[in-house]
Structures are given as C-alpha cells and as structure tokens.
Amino acid sequence: MNDPTLVQRAITPLRALVLVTLLIALSCTPIGDSGAPEGVEPERGPRTQPGTEMGLYAPDQHALYDGRFIISGSRIYQVGTLNDQSPWDHMGNAGTNLRPVGGTAEIDVNEIDNTGTFRAELELPEGKYVMNLEEIKEFSPCQDGGIAAFLFEHGDSGCGDANWPKSLLYVAGWGIGSVTLNDADLYEDYEIHFMVTQGMRDRELVAHYPMDGKTTEAGAVNPALQQLDFYIRSPEKNEANHPDREVFDHFFAMEVTWR
Length: 259
Fold this sequence. Notes:
- With 259 residues, the chain is mainly beta.
- Helix content is 10%, strand content 41%.
- The protein has 1 helix and 9 strands; from the N terminus they run αβββββββββ.
- An 8-stranded antiparallel barrel has the order 1-2-3-4-6-7-8-9.
C-alpha cells in the first residue's frame, strides 16, 4: 500500500465520482425567474428586490409595448419656497412646509428610444415658473439611458439615493434642464429628475419615511395612491441643506392622469 501508483489509482476514481455527483446536483437545482436558485434571494437591483411575493413581466416582454408614456400631473405642491434661507429642508416628509401651486406637469416620453419631453408650467407666488428637461441623460446604469419604466428606485433598492422611500416607478426620467421665472432665466444646466411612483405620501401629504418599526423589505409607500415627483437641483452642494444642494426645487403632483 506504500506504492504511490496504487494510491493515485485509488484517488482518481474517487475524484471523478465527486465531480459527477456535483454536476448532477447542480443540474437538478430549480432556477427561479430571477436566475437564482429557489430559496436564495436575488441580488438587489432595479428589477429585483428581496422578499417579494409577486412577479411582473417587464415592459419589453409585451409584444404590444410601444414605450410611450403621456402623463399629466396636477394638484401640485411645492416643498418650501424659492427664497428659503439655508439651512432648509426641501424633502418635507412631515408635510409642514408645503404650499399648493397652480399649473401642471406634462410627460411625453418614449422609454425605448430615450426621447421625449418633460415640462412643468407652474403658478407660484413669485410668478410664472417653467421647468424644461432639455437633455435626457442617465447618471447611473439603472437609469437605462435616461428614461426607464417599471423599476425600483430609492430607499434600499440599490438604485438612486435614499432621500425617498423605495417605490415601484412606473416611468422616470433624468437629465439636464432649465427654469425660467416670469420669462427670465433662473437656472441653466441643472439636473432634473421626474418619477411617477406609488404613494410616497399619505392622503394628508405626510411621507412616513423613514418608517418606524418597518418589518418587511417593501418600501414605505401606499400602493393605493400614485404621485408624480419632480425636482431641479444645482451642481453646487451645500451640506447644511436637505438634500445637500445649493438649489433644490422640489414639487409633487397628487393627481396623475395617463393618456
């Protein structure tokens, strides 16, 4: 038994048996829709979230999907004002620094082509405020070219920042744009983001985020509601403000109409 040749002959078949057993086991492991073995949570991302009990077909899995979203937002509120002194809070989760403003926000985009328009024409106490998205542009891969549909963003979704709770976004856009106030230039080459989401605010306009006692992976949203959030922000930062920008004009529409 001290002959190395005999030892090698004994080990080689054993190794082969182990390898074959592993291959058979792997080939029999069921794979879920996420590509992960059953019982293993999928990697967190814009189309997969841990703990879900329901799957959705992606838009491009539908033969009739044309990629076009024509949506209007009304019953609009502004968080804070244009002239707030720093430090300010323009997230307004508590709903105490909101003011209703007139006007509408209009989305007409094609998610497949990453083309289209976003324009908000608002009547503020300071005058006529017009926000225009002039260049559609992604700032991270999960933004899918600048216009994306049916993805998870914000919170702990792995896409976007944590200023908002995680939500299913029906359609969203990112890019560069401008604002005029009473037909005079107010901002140029600022970042714009719009998103049609589940209800991030309740019927009293309060956002329960972060949510105390949260027990599931689901976002702190009410799926019985829908809203349109949009903002324009400066490239310059200011750590004293929330969010941390020198300028962050934030609006949301609580009535959303699809056409």
